[in-house]
Amino acid sequence: MSDVIKRNLFDQYMVPCFSPASFIPVKGKGSRVWDQEGKEYVDFAGGIAVNSLGHANDELKNALSSQMENLWHIGNGYTNEPVLKLAKNLVESTFADKVFFCNSGAEANEAALKIARKYALDKYGSHKNEIISFENSFHGRTLFTVTVGGQPKYSQDFAPLPQEIAHLPYNNIDAIKAHISEKTCAVIVEPIIGEGGVIPADPEFLKALRELCDQHHALLIFDEIQTGIGRTGYLYAYEETGVEPDILTSAKGLGGGFPIGAMLVKQHVAESFQPGTHGTTFGGNPLAAAVGGKVVELVNQKEFLAGVQERHHEFIQRMVVLNERYQAFSEIRGKGLLLGAELAEKYQGKAKTLTNLAAEEGLIALIAGPDVLRFAPALNISQQDIDDGFMCLEKALKRFVQE
Ligand SMILES: Cc1ncc(COP(=O)(O)O)c(C=O)c1O
C-alpha cells in the first residue's frame, strides 16, 4: 500500500458524513495554518469555535506535556488532580455548584437533558417530562440531542425519536408563554444560536424564559457550547444577560482543541445524578482536564476578555467597510468573536461558495447555514492576522460578487 496521504483517501476510507476541503492542513501555530503543499492560511474559523487560544499554544502544550509525563487515564473508579482543579475553578467562576465532565458538546447536552428529566421525575413525578427547545437551534448529534435541536433535517431519518419535545420560535415570548405548562421539565436555549445562523437572543426573551421556568418549576438550560469560554467577551455569555440558568453546557473552546465537555449545575439539580445514574469512560480524563484547566485560567482574566471585545469592534468595523465596497451582506451580527454576516438576498444560499473562494485566497472561514458567513477565530488573534485575513477576504469577496 502506498503511504502517500492525499485527500482522495477520505472518500476511499471514511464514512462520508463530512465533505472536507480539498486541501489537508498539517500544521497550525497561533491563527495560521499550513497545508500539505506549504500554503499558508489565516484562520478565522478556530476549528469551529474550539481553538480558543489558537493552534499549538505554548502554555497549553506545557500543560498537556507535563500531565502526559504523569498520568493519562485512570478511570472513574478514582478521581484525579487536574479534574478537581478544573471543577473548582469552574464552580468558583460561575453560578454553578457542581460539574460533570464528558468529551463533547453533544454529551454535555445529553447529560443536561437526562438530569433535567431525572430531577423532574424525582421531585414531581413522571408526568413532568416535556422539554422545550427552539426552532433552528443545534444541540449535538446524539439521538436525544438531534431530536431536541430545532432542525428536523438532522433527526427525521432516525425515527422513532425521543418523545415529549416541543420546538417553539426563538425570541418569541408569546409563543412560549402560550405553550409552557406544569408538564414542562426543562427549556434549553442557546444564548446565541450558532450553527443556525449566529442569532443572538433578545435579553428580554432570556429574562422571560427564566421567569416562566420559575413559575412552572422547569429547569433552564443554557447551551453555551459555542458561546462559552470567553467567546462573547465573558467567561460565559449568561453573565452579560443577567439571567442565570440552572444548568449550563460547555465544550468546544473549553479544551482549546483537546476534546472535553462539561455540564455545570446547581446543587439541587446535581443530586439527581447518583453513582450509577449516568457516566462516561473518558469524561474527566486527566489529559483533557489539564488542558481545560489551563484554558480557563488563561481566558478568565479581565484583560484577556477585554481583548475579545476590542477584537469584536475591529472585526465589525472591517466587515462594515468591506460591505460598503461590495454590498454582499444584509446584516452583520454577533457578539465577541462569534460573528455572522448574512448574505444579501441575491447571494442567498452561497455562503459555501464564499468560504471556498476565501480558502483559495488563504483564509479559513465558516458558514452558519447556507446564507451566513461565520467567524469564530482564536480569542487572542493578532492584529497582523486580522489584517491579513481581511485582505484575503476582500480578494475573495471581489471574485464572489463578480462571479
Ligand atoms: C450550541 C451547540 N451545542 C452543541 C454542539 C455539539 O457539540 P459537539 O459537536 O462537540 O458534540 C454544538 C456544535 O456545533 C453547538 O454549537
UniProtKB/TrEMBL annotation:
- Listed binding positions for N(2)-acetyl-L-ornithine are 141, 280
Q: Provide the E.C. number(s) assigned to this enzyme.
A: 2.6.1.11, 2.6.1.17
Q: Which reaction does it catalyse?
A: N-succinyl-(2S,6S)-2,6-diaminopimelate + 2-oxoglutarate = (S)-2-succinylamino-6-oxoheptanedioate + L-glutamate; N(2)-acetyl-L-ornithine + 2-oxoglutarate = N-acetyl-L-glutamate 5-semialdehyde + L-glutamate
Annotated compartments: Cytoplasm
Q: State the SUPFAM superfamilies in the record.
A: PLP-dependent transferases (SSF53383)
Q: Does the keyword Acyltransferase apply?
A: no
Name the top EC class: transferase
Q: What cofactors does the UniProt entry give for this protein? A: pyridoxal 5'-phosphate
Extract the GO molecular function terms from the UniProt entry: identical protein binding; N2-acetyl-L-ornithine:2-oxoglutarate 5-aminotransferase activity; pyridoxal phosphate binding; succinyldiaminopimelate transaminase activity
Q: In which pathway does it act?
A: Amino-acid biosynthesis; L-lysine biosynthesis via DAP pathway; LL-2,6-diaminopimelate from (S)-tetrahydrodipicolinate (succinylase route): step 2/3; Amino-acid biosynthesis; L-arginine biosynthesis; N(2)-acetyl-L-ornithine from L-glutamate: step 4/4
Q: Which PROSITE patterns match?
A: AA_TRANSFER_CLASS_3 (PS00600)
Q: Which InterPro entries match?
A: Ac/SucOrn_transaminase_bac, AcOrn/SuccOrn_fam, Aminotrans_3, Aminotrans_3_PPA_site, Class-III_PLP-dep_AT, PyrdxlP-dep_Trfase, PyrdxlP-dep_Trfase_major, PyrdxlP-dep_Trfase_small
Write down any Gene Ontology CC term: cytoplasm
What keywords does the record list, in alphabetical order?
A: Amino-acid biosynthesis, Aminotransferase, Arginine biosynthesis, Cytoplasm, Lysine biosynthesis, Pyridoxal phosphate, Transferase
This entry's comment on the bound cofactor is: Binds 1 pyridoxal phosphate per subunit.
N6-(pyridoxal phosphate)lysine modification, residue list: 252
One Pfam family recorded for the sequence = Aminotran_3
Q: Which residues bind pyridoxal 5'-phosphate?
A: 105-106, 138, 223-226, 281
Biological process terms from the Gene Ontology for this record are: L-arginine biosynthetic process; lysine biosynthetic process via diaminopimelate
Question: Major location, coarse class?
Answer: cytoplasm
Record-stated family? Belongs to the class-III pyridoxal-phosphate-dependent aminotransferase family. ArgD subfamily.
On subunit structure and binding partners, the annotation says:
Homodimer.
HAMAP family documented for this protein: ArgD_aminotrans_3 (MF_01107)
| Database matches in NCBIfam families | arg_catab_astC, argD, PRK01278.1, PRK05093.1, PRK12381.1
Give the protein's function: Involved in both the arginine and lysine biosynthetic pathways.
User: Which protein are we looking at?
Assistant: Acetylornithine/succinyldiaminopimelate aminotransferase
Organism, by scientific name, is Xenorhabdus szentirmaii DSM 16338
